[in-house]
């Protein structure tokens, strides 16, 4: 049967090029497997070679037109740094720079003037230093890697003192104590969940202590009857005892006002000014760049980190460095508010969002939908500013929904499976579209995606 199905005359008819042999074999096997399963379940199945060959052709066509697992989506959730949707969209300058180096060779570790080997981070380090005030800096593939590497390089086999109120769990269920275990450093918990004073850290110091660690709880807040030791006091205590001060700020605010509209988040510049030996933060959160983990701080700490063998395993590639450099240049030149999508979304004026929401609602009503503009809340997301929602205006679509999608969940699913996929918010029996996380250029394809799913007559 396989030989009959693989016969070229059955599979290739008309002006069509011959598919690769492995594609034909995979399609034939899949067609046969489908037929066997149907027969075993008592369902009728065509078993003649021509019918199976036609099914194999369908499977070949599906394979050749497969867009791949990762597809661009329209984010109408109002969550700016949506982890499930890839966090920060890049500035056009970052996209162009990364694309340029991806297409061919580049001077990743080569100094053009001297004609000798160079450092792959030589483009981004001066920018990080300028923007944060750090003596030195380096970059790895994400902030969790930065945390592991800093603990390993500065405190492997020794104790690191951290507040119980900062024993965080990050995305994917990874917990700080587990990060310690991987790094080889030993966790020394002090204080309580809501209160940890400087004396708690002081009493925990001993001959085996290597560092103090402050971790910003970027994805939750402890409020009310609370107290925490100020970073300058922690840094002074650490240095008085010959210890390292590590400050993990997570979400990646470079300095106050970068970006605007985000208050209460620690910044890299403030951490370094307060005396931290190394500050750790993400590149794809509030910085608005590619996924990476930045380590900035005192030269002795960074040299020790870069000398660790794990540095090579965690290093970033040329496209990440190119995109990060372009992002940092935009920030340095004062063009971040205009050019970085994340910064624009966070700072979008409410009146502008209201006007855009009204335009979308009008277009939806023209398609027969029950659409209105409502007050809502956007979220920064990505473990940033968790208790600081941003007022917004959203389009609310209430029942009835286009048949056969009778519920809000069915219609939202149809939108996700459409082209382009649209991810909206389901809330209280309705579907909400927040224009904050939609570019203006996203609006026509959004309206078309809604139209394709079906009008209500």
TrEMBL record:
Key words, A-Z: Cytoplasm, Protein biosynthesis, Pyridoxal phosphate, Selenium, Transferase
In terms of InterPro entries, this protein maps to:
PyrdxlP-dep_Trfase, PyrdxlP-dep_Trfase_major, SelA-like, SelA_trans
- GO cellular-component term (any): cytoplasm
Q: What pathway or pathways are given for this protein in its record?
A: Aminoacyl-tRNA biosynthesis; selenocysteinyl-tRNA(Sec) biosynthesis; selenocysteinyl-tRNA(Sec) from L-seryl-tRNA(Sec) (bacterial route): step 1/1
Organism lineage:
Bacteria, Pseudomonadati, Planctomycetota, Planctomycetia, Isosphaerales
Instruction: Using the UniProt record, name the top-level EC class of this enzyme in a single word.
Output: transferase
The UniProt similarity line reads: Belongs to the SelA family.
Primary site of residence: cytoplasm
List every position bearing N6-(pyridoxal phosphate)lysine.
Answer: 285
Function field = Converts seryl-tRNA(Sec) to selenocysteinyl-tRNA(Sec) required for selenoprotein biosynthesis.
| Protein's name in the database | L-seryl-tRNA(Sec) selenium transferase
| A single BP term in Gene Ontology | selenocysteine incorporation
The record, for NCBIfam families, names: selA
Q: What is its EC number?
A: 2.9.1.1
Q: Which GO terms describe its molecular function?
A: L-seryl-tRNA(Sec) selenium transferase activity
Subcellular location as annotated: Cytoplasm
Listed under catalytic activity are: L-seryl-tRNA(Sec) + selenophosphate + H(+) = L-selenocysteinyl-tRNA(Sec) + phosphate
Cofactor(s) this protein cannot do without: pyridoxal 5'-phosphate
Q: Does the record's keyword annotation contain Protein biosynthesis?
A: yes
């Amino acid at each position: 049967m396989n030989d009959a199905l693989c016969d070229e005359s059955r599979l290739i008819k008309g002006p069509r090029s011959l598919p690769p042999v492995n594609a034909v074999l995979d399609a034939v096997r899949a067609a046969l497997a489908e037929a066997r399963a149907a027969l075993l379940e008592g369902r009728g199945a065509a078993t003649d070679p021509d019918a199976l060959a036609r099914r194999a052709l369908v499977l070949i066509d599906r394979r050749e037109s497969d867009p791949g697992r990762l597809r661009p989506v329209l984010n109408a959730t109002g969550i700016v740094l949506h982890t499930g949707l890839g966090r920060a969209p890049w500035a056009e300058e970052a996209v162009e720079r990364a694309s340029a180096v991806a297409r061919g060779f580049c001077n990743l570790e080569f100094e053009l003037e001297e004609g000798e080997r160079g450092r792959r981070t030589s483009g981004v380090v001066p920018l990080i230093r300028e923007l944060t005030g750090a003596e030195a800096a380096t970059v790895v593939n994400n902030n969790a890697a930065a945390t592991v590497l800093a603990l390993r390089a500065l405190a492997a086999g020794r104790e690191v003192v951290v507040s119980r109120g900062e024993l965080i769990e990050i995305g994917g269920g990874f917990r700080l104590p587990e990060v310690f275990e991987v790094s080889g450093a030993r966790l020394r918990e002090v204080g309580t969940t809501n209160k940890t004073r400087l004396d708690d850290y002081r009493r925990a110091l001993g001959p085996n202590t290597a560092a103090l660690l402050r971790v910003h709880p970027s994805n939750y807040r402890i409020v009310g009857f609370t107290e925490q030791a100020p970073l300058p006091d922690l840094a002074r205590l650490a240095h008085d005892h010959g210890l390292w001060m590590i400050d993990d700020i997570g979400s990646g605010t470079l300095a106050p006002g970068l970006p605007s509209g985000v208050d209460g988040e620690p910044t890299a510049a403030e951490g370094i000014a307060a005396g931290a030996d190394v500050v750790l933060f993400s590149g794809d959160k509030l910085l608005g760049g590619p996924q990476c983990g930045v380590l900035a701080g005192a030269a002795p700490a960074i040299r020790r980190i870069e000398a660790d063998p794990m540095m090579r395993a965690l290093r970033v590639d040329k496209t990440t460095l190119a995109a990060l450099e372009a992002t940092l240049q935009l920030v340095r030149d004062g063009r971040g508010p205009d050019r970085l999508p994340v910064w624009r979304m966070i700072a979008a004026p409410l009146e502008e969002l209201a006007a855009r929401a009204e335009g979308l609602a009008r277009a939806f009503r023209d398609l027969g939908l029950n659409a209105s503009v409502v007050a809502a809340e956007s979220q920064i997301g990505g473990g940033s500013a968790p208790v600081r929602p941003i007022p917004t205006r959203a389009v609310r679509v209430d029942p009835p929904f286009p048949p056969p999608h009778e519920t809000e969940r069915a219609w939202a699913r149809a939108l996700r499976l459409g082209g382009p996929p649209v991810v909206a918010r389901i809330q209280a029996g309705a579907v909400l579209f927040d224009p904050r996380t939609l570019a203006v250029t996203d609006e026509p394809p959004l309206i078309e995606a809604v139209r394709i799913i079906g009008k209500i007559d």
